[in-house]
From TrEMBL:
Protein's recorded name: J domain-containing protein
Record SMART domains: DnaJ (SM00271), ZnF_U1 (SM00451)
Entry-linked Gene3D superfamilies: Classic Zinc Finger, DnaJ domain
SUPFAM superfamilies documented for this protein: beta-beta-alpha zinc fingers, Chaperone J-domain
InterPro entries documented for this protein: Chaperone_stress_response (IPR051964), DnaJ_domain (IPR001623), DnaJ_domain_CS (IPR018253), J_dom_sf (IPR036869), Matrin/U1-like-C_Znf_C2H2 (IPR003604), Znf_C2H2_jaz (IPR022755), Znf_C2H2_sf (IPR036236), Znf_C2H2_type (IPR013087)
Record lineage: Eukaryota, Fungi, Fungi incertae sedis, Mucoromycota, Mucoromycotina
Annotated stretches, region: Disordered: 278-302
Native species: Umbelopsis ramanniana AG
Coiled coil, from the record: 202-277
Gene Ontology CC terms: cytoplasm
Length: 388
């Protein structure tokens, strides 16, 4: 009779993760082989069982499965009673393989991990092939072989050269993780149809039998899929592959960081060694002529009238300063304001209709506006006469 995992750790079935961890550490200290030299073999076996118990119960998914099938797992192959030989391997038979006590070491020996589970899955595959060949399955018409479990030297996945489907452990797990049995599960029937008194009772019996078969098939499929997950988690080849993938990922992350650091240093070096172009310096010098510098120019200095800005009323020492000033925002603003002011004054000035203000006009007498064109002609006539 197998020992319950909760009893191994000496905790209640409602224990929290923290309580499980504390109990595991306590039991591990008690049964560690280094502390039990007088019973080294017993301590080694017990210590392995304690590790297995904590490994299962600390995983929420595996713990839920264990709690739901605890009694069947504890019975294992020790269960007694009649069973239909056509059923082949049953759920109760599989429960015994949910334990590390089923094998001794991770090797290819007859009691080793790889031999035990390779033999088991080969047997399950043979039963599925027989069910299809006998015509017991209505769903599957042809059978496809599953990839082999392999040995300790079988590669988990493709690394250098692809060897084909089925040559890798990864193919095995991918196929069995989606396992669906082709068996009929007729041994799960509750009623014998030949005993039905009439067709109505027979129809009810068929309905209950069909439901019982579907339930048995679902339980069988779930058991095998969970067993595959249980085995994969403890498969040294899978663990080595996970470590290898993690190492590659860490190396890639480190390489990305190093490349980013190199690029950053290269950019800093280029920025430090950057030599400003001549044309860029000239442009900056032109822009550096500020408005304050224009205002600080000495208006009484000895400047050339050729470098005088009428709009801003300023003198400049050289042609370059004068050109820079003409490009400044302040000068452009002043010129624009003057242009707008002159346009406004021109619109307001109407020389064609200017009324004459006569001091000696009598009250009520209207004064007509003077036509400047006529006045201009009279002045021209007078000037001509005087010249003669």
């Amino acid at each position: 009779m197998r020992v319950c995992y909760y009893e191994l750790l000496n905790v209640a079935r409602t224990a929290s993760p923290e309580e499980l961890k504390k109990a595991y550490r306590k039991q591990a200290l008690i049964w560690h082989p280094d502390k039990n030299a007088h019973r080294i073999q017993q301590a080694t076996d017990q210590f392995a069982l304690i590790q297995e118990a904590y490994e299962v119960l600390s995983d929420p998914q595996e713990r839920a499965w264990y709690d739901g099938h605890r009694d069947a797992i504890l019975r294992g192959d020790d269960s007694v009673g009649q069973k239909d030989s056509s059923a082949g391997t049953t759920v109760d038979d599989l429960m015994g393989y949910f334990s590390i006590s089923q094998y001794r070491g991770y090797n290819d020996d007859p009691k080793g991990f790889f031999h035990i589970y390779r033999t088991l899955f080969q047997k399950l595959e043979d039963e599925e092939e027989e069910a299809v060949a006998s015509g017991a399955s209505d769903e599957v018409q042809s059978f496809t072989r599953y990839p082999s479990f392999g040995s300790s030297s079988t590669p988990f996945a493709d690394d250098d050269g692809y060897l084909g489907y089925g040559a890798y452990v990864k193919d095995f797990y991918n196929a069995w993780m989606t396992f669906s049995s082709a068996k009929s599960f007729q041994w799960a029937d509750k009623w014998r149809l030949s005993e039905a008194p009439n067709r109505f009772v027979k129809r009810a019996m068929e309905k209950e039998n069909k439901k019982a078969r579907e339930t048995a098939k679902k339980e069988y499929n779930d058991t095998i899929r969970n067993l595959v997950a249980f085995v994969r988690k403890r498969d040294p080849r899978y663990k080595a592959y996970q470590d290898q993938q993690k190492a590659k990922k860490d190396a890639q992350v480190a390489e990305n960081k190093a490349r980013a650091q190199r690029e950053r240093l290269e950019l800093q070096a280029k920025a430090a060694a950057y030599k400003e172009q001549e044309w860029a310096r000239v442009g900056e010098e032109a822009d550096s002529v500020s408005e304050d510098e224009d205002e600080d120019e000495d208006e009484n200095g000895d400047y050339d009238d050729a470098f005088y800005c009428v709009a801003c009323n300023k003198y400049f020492k050289s042609q370059r300063q004068f050109e820079n000033h003409e490009q400044s925002k302040k000068h452009i603003k002043i010129v624009q304001d003057l242009r707008e002011q002159m346009l406004a004054d021109e619109e307001n000035l109407d020389l064609q209709a200017i009324p004459l203000q006569m001091d000696d006009t009598e009250e009520g007498e209207s004064i007509e506006p003077v036509n400047l064109t006529d006045v201009g002609e009279e002045i021209a006539i007078i000037q001509t006469e005087e010249a003669e």
